[in-house]
Amino acid sequence: MNGATSSPPPGRTIDIELGGQEVITVELDSLDPNPDDLLEVLKEGQCKVWIWTRLAAEYWRRGLLDAAEKIAKTALQALQDTDSSGSVSPVFSFLATLQIAMAAKAPKLILTDAVHDRMVAERTREDYYKEGTMYFNSGERVAAEYGESHMMLSSLTRGILQLSSGQWDDAARTFDSVLSDKPTNVVALLGKAKIAYARRQYTQSLKLFQRVLQLNPTCLPDPRIGIGLCLWAMDHKAKAKAAWQRSVEVNPGEWSAHLLLGLEALNASKNEGQSEEERREEFLTGTRLIERAFNANQRNSAAANALCELFLQKGQTKMALKLAERTIQFADVKGILCDGYIRAGRVTHREGLLQDATSHFTKAKDARKDSVLATIGLAQVQLKNDETAGAIHTLDTFLQTAQNPKSVELMAMLASIRATPRPGMSDKDKVEEKARARDLFDRVCKSIGAGTDGLAQLNGQTQNLTPSARKLGEDAEMFIEIAKLYQDESIERMERAYKQALQNSEASGKIEPRLVNNLGALQHLEGHFDEARAMYETALTHAASLDQSTAEAMSTSILYNLARVYEDQAEVTKAKEAYDKLLMRHPEYADAKLRQAQMLAEMNQYNDAHELIKQALASQPNNLNLRAFYTHFLVQSNQAKYAKDFVFVTLRDHDKYDVYSLCAAGWLQYHQARENRDGSPEGIKDRRRGFQRSAEFYEKALQLDSLCAVAAQGLAIVVAEDALGNLGGALGPPAPDENAKRLKNSREALDIFAKVRESINDGSVYANMGHCHYARDEFDKAIESYETASKRFYHNKNVSALLCLCRAWYAKANKDQSFSSMTMALQYAQKALHLHPFDKAILYNIAMIQQKAAELLMSVPPAKRSLKDLQKAIEQAGHAQKLFASLAADKSPLVPYNRDLADQRRKYGESMLRRCEDHLATQKQWEADAQAKIEAARQRRQEEKERQDAAERARLEELRKQAEKLAEERRIAREQAQEWTREVRRMESDEEKEKAAKKAKRGKRTEHVSGDEGVEGEPKPKKRKGKLKKSADSGAENEDEALFSGEDEDQKPKKRTKKRAVRDDDEDEPAVAAPRKKQYKSKETISDSDEEMS
User: Fold this and answer.
1) Whole-angstrom distance, CA of residue 805 vs CA of residue 839
2) For 136-192, what is each residue's pLDDT tens digit?
3) Could you check whether the bond before residue 107 is cis, i.e. omega within 30 degrees of 0?
4) Phi, psi of 789 (to 5 degrees)
5) Is 573 a member of any domain?
6) Bias category Basic and acidic residues: which stretches (predicted)?
7) What is d(CA 553, CA 582) in angstroms, rounded to the nearest whole number?
8) In-domain check, residue 687
9) d(C-alpha 654, C-alpha 662), whole Å
10) ∠ CA(426), CA(427), CA(429), 5° rounding?
11) 20 to 30 A Cα–Cα from 789, which one of 268, 311, 638, 889?
């Protein structure tokens, strides 16, 4: 060992002297597992300390830790007996290190309630650490007492103890002190590498492990294990695997590399990018390697943890629980400890041991507060124990903790729990819980890449999701649950959720017919009948492929929906065939009979329809929906008295709290009281009592269902018409304050109708709002409400809505004195007559509107009417005369108008038509005068325009002449400038000829000089050309300046800076020479680069 007083001799034998003469040789490779005989020899020979520690270390190397400990303890006693206490420090260090090695194989904690892996008789790891610390301290005291120096061995032992007990900072300082003395100490380097890895300093840790490998390639523990772990953490998985494979080659008996390679193979088996065969092969390889690692070291928590999961997947719960207990007892990191408790909880949960499962999952959460699996497991057990509130608290607390991961699986579970109503919840609590569930599901969809505004398909975010999160996005049931949550909130979002669920169902290869049926129903409700029909037919096809019992129930509902869409598409024959087929399978199917009855009623076959409804009532007399339909049928067939009696029977004998029946009773009472025209005191009393009872029925319905919009609308009508006030009293003239009361009541009713509109998507609400606006003389708003009701809900086929529009436009026309509004009123009345051609009341209204239109135009001044409109109104008035005459002469016993009044209108029309010629003449004269004035004004405007155009043409002509004159002057100036330039150039040419002649004369005087001397010694002539050119340019500029400025030509020019001459495009030559650029001398020789450029 490092730090021994003397080095052991080389070789695999040790010689022990006995009495100075006898020597016993101990073969280290063939030691007896029982060291008792060897101990006697060592005592007798009074061996030195290095022999004791060498033999103890050899036993340790062979795995005989108890024998090694016995030798070391005997050495302590023997050395102390021979007065060699000062040399026992290495023995104490050996014992301390031995305790650390024994602690590695000891349980971290002992489960007192373990079922299969009981270890209550063993010592814990903490006990070994304490004993090792005691030995180390004893050795330190001995060394200090006797002055022996074993600093290296002591420091390493101290560092290992500190590292084992988790004192990373102290251990790092200890190892640094060792490395400062000996930088190549592999033990200290390994300790530093382990600390750096624990601190997630993977780059530093990798360098340290690589340094150890360089110093000692055969070092144990193998640094290649650490190298692979660092590379794996740094996402270099292929290199990590290569390091572990090399470790297996070098040390095939070590279990660590086998375990890590097995875990890597299991992870690779989960790669969906591989084929099924490749994944299966990886799984089998991983399983074999993990089993080999566990067999090599059955007290390793990581191997036990991995094997436990394998046995759980196989369903071998007994072995899985034993391995989970082994994991818990030997885990030295919180992650593995948490996994052990989770797997133990899963086993006990499967076995139905809920109390034990709760304990295990709770301990798992204590080990790691941020464990998602432990939280989900605990919540599942709480749900199993009917502790729903506890499960919600567990999940919600986890999600609200900022440090915990935001698990989409956990959010989906919490949302599903909140979406399910619990016993004892109030309606308010249910609404709040559903809102929370929707919010959680929205967060889940955003996390998995299926946002609430795009539930139809998952986007590319799924590539970054865990496999469980991806499976959650592929789960059709979750989106079905989302669709149910939005059933009462948003049809659009519910439809998107169902579409996503259907897409997931199709992706799994198993299409759910109920999903297709639900989507068809949504399309049906939105009026997309063709799409709904196709979906219903598809759903029927898929339902037929299921087993008989399931297919029958599904196909019945789907066939009924298909018959409804046939009915809405006006394919009566197909609808009747579908209903007959349903009734053939299920003769007591009441809904099918009701739809057949409704079809018969629409064809005016009320007796046949009545018979079908009676058959349905005979088989299901307590069906409230059926009774509600019968009430509606009686009202539609104008049997109000029978309907009232039937509703009262329903409330008395079946359900006095039926909201529909209460609303129907309120409507029937109100209708009966409103139609009561008896003016006697008794009749007035009955009328008032009817209105009061109607209001009581509506109020009771609202007490039972505060969101009942029908009851609220009924009360709003009572308020708007003041049914409990003037309308409920005598039918005499209105009271003085009737107008103010009418305005107040209609305002209050409008507020109610506005709220009802949010709940009832029906034209009656808009019609009632139109009545209120009409009562307030707000005719434009009334027309808007009536048109919404008529177009959106009744498709302009409802006579009542058309007549309301006619009345509103008529009132607006009288108020605004507008012939166009009166025309609109006439058009709506004619549309109503087209739908009911035999309604004489509508004919009377048409005649009245036509006569009123002519009267209106005759009453307005000519400026507010046109001859064309007047002629049209007079023509319509003539048609009204014929209608009034025929209506007055009608001999029918009952007519919906007053014949005398019709005759009076005819007579009034005759007198009005006699004035028509005067009005026509006046209108013609007025329009002729107005037209003459318009023509005169137009002529004056035309003359003024012509005068302005002539002035503009003259101005443009003057400008053109000025431009031509200026252009001519500029041309002459350019020609003069060019002439001056040519003159200057001729002068320069003459000067150059004179200089050349002078130069020739000087050359004759120097002709006796040698050639070389003449070239080199010839004086260079001064360059005066530039000066001449400059002066010439300046002269030209000065002359130009004098020309354009008007100054005298012989005036001395001022000194000015040189400017760049501007050349016109049409110049043949430049007016001014360009300035000279800086010149450079050329080289005497041409370089290679110059040749290449050329």
Assistant:
1) 17
2) 888 888 877 776 655 787 888 888 888 888 888 999 999 999 999 899 999 999 999
3) no
4) -65, -45
5) no
6) 967-997
7) 11
8) yes
9) 12
10) 65
11) 638
Distance of alpha carbon 128 from alpha carbon 205, whole angstroms:
28
CA distances from 1043 to 493, 969, 1046, 1051 (A): 87, 11, 6, 12
Which pTM was predicted? Answer: 0.63
Q: What is the 3-state secondary structure (H, E, C) of 1002-1035?
A: HHHHCCCCCHHHHHHHCCCCCCCHHHHHHHHHHH
Residue spans of alpha helices (H) in 82-123: 89-104
Q: How far is CA 787 from CA 581, 779, 784, 817, 824, in A?
A: 41, 12, 5, 22, 12
Residue 447: inside a domain: no
Taking the CA atoms of 1065, 1069, 1075 and 1076 in sequence, report the sign of the dihedral they define. positive
Residue whose token pair is 């929707």: 438
For residue 572, is it within any domain? Answer: no
3-state helix, strand, coil split of the chain in percent (to 5) is 75, 0, 25
* DSSP string for 503-517: HHHHHTT---HHHHH
Domain count, the chain: 3
Helix (H) or strand (E) holding 466: none
Range of the domain at 933: 842-973
User: Are 854 and 963 within one domain?
Assistant: yes
Residue 246 burial (CB < 10 Å; 0-12/13-18/19+)? middle
Structure tokens of 521? Answer: 């129903």
CA distance 519 to 1031: 98
Question: Do 12 and 27 meet the contact criterion of CB atoms below 8 Å apart?
Answer: yes
- Do 848 and 749 lie in one domain? The reply is no
- Cα–Cα distances in Å, from 1037 out to 600, 1042, 1052, 1061? 110, 9, 12, 9
759, 781, 812 — which closes off a domain?
Answer: 759
- Among 958, 973, 988, the domain boundary falls at 973
Each residue of 513-565: pLDDT tens digit? 888 999 999 889 888 899 999 999 999 888 888 877 778 888 889 999 999 99
Do 131 and 73 touch, CB atoms closer than 8 A? no
CB of 520 closer than 8 Å to CB of 532: yes
**Domain co-membership, 846 together with 969:** yes
